From TrEMBL:
This is NAD-dependent epimerase/dehydratase family protein. PANTHER family: L-THREONINE 3-DEHYDROGENASE, L-THREONINE 3-DEHYDROGENASE, MITOCHONDRIAL. It comes from Flavivirga aquimarina. Gene3D superfamilies: NAD(P)-binding Rossmann-like Domain (3.40.50.720). Belongs to the NAD(P)-dependent epimerase/dehydratase family. Pfam families: Epimerase. Residues 5-240 form the NAD-dependent epimerase/dehydratase domain. Coiled coil: none annotated.
Length: 316
């Protein structure tokens, strides 16, 4: 039987590109995009779902005979610190609602997005291994550790096939991220293309793990398509793209925009970034499901700039 896929959080940075990719791959009639409101992003099926409401998730699952769920809704690291209890409530309750719905409705496969934010001071900063000690200091990071463990719990206790990856900062041109610590690496390209100066909220040598959107989406679909016996990690898999600092990305941009100006005004997000890995060891993902990134920093820079030029031309 062909999959019928529900994407929760389809309006977001990853959700929107994932939904369109799944539509192209499986056909529009098999993909149900959902979010808190319909902002007209998709040509295809859209259902308004507040994932805090388990009855609404179940209703949509039963209506469309959904077989797979991708749960992308979450409050990210920087925004989470503004109202930690609300972030906790949303990140955990929506995930438990998805897990419970999946258990009750016999969903075949579920995707959970974790993050490099699960790591804290006790993990090695360089080439951070999959099984490093997890002591995150943001509420987002704590909720992701918790979410990973709930994923594993549902797998062990109920046999639910939950699969998860730890996203680095995702860089894409299609939509803006919202409230993350790695968001500067998207904003910087918009400023460059608009010929505007950029003030970075991290200091110039803050190296963080990042990944291009095409690699992130490919990883997401690849892990979901891997034969079940190959999935050995039931918490979450590290995946690496490319690591760089604001200074390094600015250098690449200046290759195309020699007059590009950047200055640095670190704010509270610097403290968050300082506790995160600089680079990720993704050998488990490479071994178990042949993960391999394609985009290096130069390929990301060239693609971001050419796509944004196209987009801004279209809207001017
Ligand atoms: C964030 O910065 O909060 C996210 C993430 C790394 O999960 N982009």
């Amino acid at each position: 039987m062909s999959a019928v896929i529900l994407v929760i959080g389809a309006n977001g940075q990853v959700g929107s590109v994932l939904t369109k990719t799944l539509q192209d791959k499986y056909g529009k009639e098999r993909i149900i995009a959902s979010d808190l409101e319909d902002i007209g992003k998709f040509d295809g099926i859209f259902e308004v779902i507040d994932a805090m409401n388990i009855d609404r998730i179940k209703e949509v699952v039963l209506q469309y005979k959904v077989t797979q769920i991708y749960h992308l809704a979450a409050i990210l690291s920087a925004n989470g610190e503004g109202d930690p209890l609300r972030a906790w409530d949303i990140n955990i309750k929506t995930w438990l609602n998805v897990l419970e719905t999946s258990r009750i409705c016999n969903i075949e496969r579920v995707f959970y997005p974790s993050s490099i934010a699960v790591f804290g001071n006790s993990a090695p900063r360089n080439s951070t291994p999959n099984n490093a000690y997890l002591d995150p200091e943001t509420v987002y990071g704590i909720s992701k550790v918790d979410g990973e463990n709930w994923a594993q719990y549902y797998h062990i206790k109920y046999g639910l096939d939950v699969r998860s990856i730890r996203y680095p900062g995702v860089i894409g041109y299609q939509s803006l991220p919202n409230g993350g610590t790695t968001d500067y690496a998207v904003d910087i390209f918009h400023k460059a293309v608009l010929n505007e100066p950029f003030t970075c909220f991290l200091n110039k040598e803050t190296t963080l793990p990042m990944i291009f959107i095409d690699d992130a989406i490919r990883a997401t679909i690849e892990i979901m398509e891997t034969p079940i016996e190959n999935i050995k990690v039931r918490t979450s898999y590290n995946i690496a793209g490319i690591s760089f600092s604001p200074e390094e990305i600015a250098f690449e941009i200046k290759g195309l925009y020699p007059d590009f100006k950047i200055d640095y005004k670190p704010d509270f997000r610097q403290d968050i970034a300082d506790k995160w890995p600089k680079s990720i060891n993704d050998s488990e993902a490479r071994m178990d499901w042949d993960w391999e990134p394609e985009y290096d920093l130069w390929a990301i820079t060239e693609t971001m700039i050419s796509k944004l030029i196209e987009q801004y031309k279209m809207t001017v």
